[in-house]
Amino acid sequence: MNPSFDAIQTRPENAIFCIVFYPDRIYHAEYLNATRSPRYRYYVHEVRNRLDITVMKGMVFMDGVFLCNFLRLEYRASRLVEQAREKERFLRSKIMANIHLLPTNQANQASATVQLHYDEWIDAYQVEIWQTLEAPPTKHHDVKIANILGANQEITRVRAFGPALADLGALKQLELSFRENDIDEPFGYKITDPSWDNAYRASYQVPNTQTPSDPGNTVEVDSYLIDFQRGWFFDDISKVLPVRYENAMTESKSPDFNTTPGQNVIEMRWVIQRQMGSSVVYFHEVTIPPGCIEGTHQHVGSEELYFIFEGEGIAYMGDGDDPTVTDPPYPLKTIEIFCVGPRNIRVVPVKPRSVIYTKSGGIHGIRNTGTVPLRFAAFGYSSA
Fold it and tell me: What would the pLDDT profile of 221-249 be if each residue is shown by its tens digit?
């Protein structure tokens, strides 16, 4: 590892920023598959995480000479474990992953199913896909890794991926889904109904129409997106067309439900969605016209942060969610919660620079009581 990273991380004033300098395992690469032999070293170009998925792309060197490009996939399988458990099965030493490469050159797009192997060193399933498994002329692979090279091994090759791996800079995206292995260990019988982790049929929003609550604005997907783009710039997100929703998250029996068509329509500009890494699900801008409301709802297994930057109104928070929000000055009410029923909430005023952060189990909603649009930025996170 470069000693300069030690110096950076040991300065007290930098301690909180150590997350910026990724742990030693990336720079030193001691745990990657071929580094069980000192003849191999890795150079990692990019690392991307999505929940418990880690994807790396880079180069492998053998005896100090460039050997090939590679793609490494790690998966900690917390969701797939639960899916398999419902069928009274355990995940064992192997699982499968469907991989769809999306380079900028569409002619090089390719899909394949590969086998992942459980690795105790990292407590995860992993596989490395190398551009080639052939040693350079006059050389041979070290015996320490020879037994993990080949079809369905920890280091493997997918012929169809060759063109995309040849140009790592152009490999901008890939889609992933995971399932149980074909064979149930240790019993040996074929699994005919494998459990899947395919992002739980995640969806994203696209302004295909301006009709409020039009189902055509929802795009369903069955995979995780890993995006290697390094940055996004939006000079003015008002240029992003909004998706419009009528009586959003409001029960028809609730007093907040407006039965007059077009009288309770809010807008969401979905700026970044599937491209997000880590546990962030989306970033969008919400516009609530005067007199309109985003219905009060409960988050379960997810979190959301609101930052209000324009307009005024009132927000509803679950009673007790923030212990400092009490009466006075925040009155207690009982209202209908979307898909939950009546619950006690607190009424809090909001204005520019107000922040509401709701964790799993928490309740929130927001109403524009002013005369100008109420706007806020919203970040959604997966917490389970």
Answer: 999 999 999 999 999 999 999 999 999 99
Q: Quote the CA–CA distance of 172 and 169 in Å, as a whole number.
A: 7
Under 8 Å CB-to-CB from 128, ≥6 apart: which residues?
A: 32, 33, 34, 70, 71, 72, 73, 154, 155, 156
Structure tokens at 206: 């696209």
Are 61 and 133 found together in one domain? yes
* Residue 162 three-state SS: helix
Cα separation, 31 vs 68, whole angstroms: 18
- The chain-wide mean pLDDT, for the chain, equals 92
Query: What value does the mean pLDDT take over residues 185-209?
Result: 92
pTM recorded for the entire structure: 0.90
Distances from the Cα of 376 to the Cα of 45, 247, 340, angstroms: 36, 18, 25
Residues 295-323 as b or e (16 or more Cβ within 10 Å = b): bbbbbeebbbbbebeebbbbbbbbbebbe
Quote the pLDDT of residue 376.
98
The pLDDT assigned to 24 comes to 47
- Is residue 119 classed exposed, middle or buried when 0-12, 13-18 and 19+ CB atoms within 10 A define those classes? middle
Assigned domain for 377 exists:
yes
> Can you name the residues that pair with 246 across neighbouring β-strands?
265
- The yes-or-no verdict on residue 74 having pLDDT over 60 is yes
Residue 170: enclosing H or E segment and its boundaries?
none
| The pLDDT of residue 19 is above 90 | no
156, 180, 197 - which closes a domain = 197
- Cis ω before 186 (30° cut-off from 0): yes
- Which CA distances in Å does 335 have to 286, 329, 345? 22, 18, 7
Q: Do the domain assignments include residue 208?
A: no
Same domain, yes or no: 334 and 377: yes
Nearest partner of 49 among 226, 185, 188, 288, judged by Cα? 226
**Nearest partner of 70 among 42, 94, 51, 91, judged by Cα:** 42
Three state DSSP letters for 255-303: CCCCCCCCCCEEEEEEEECCCCCECEEEEEEEEECCCCEEEEEECCCEE
Structure tokens at 72: 């490494």
Boundaries of domain holding 11: 1-28
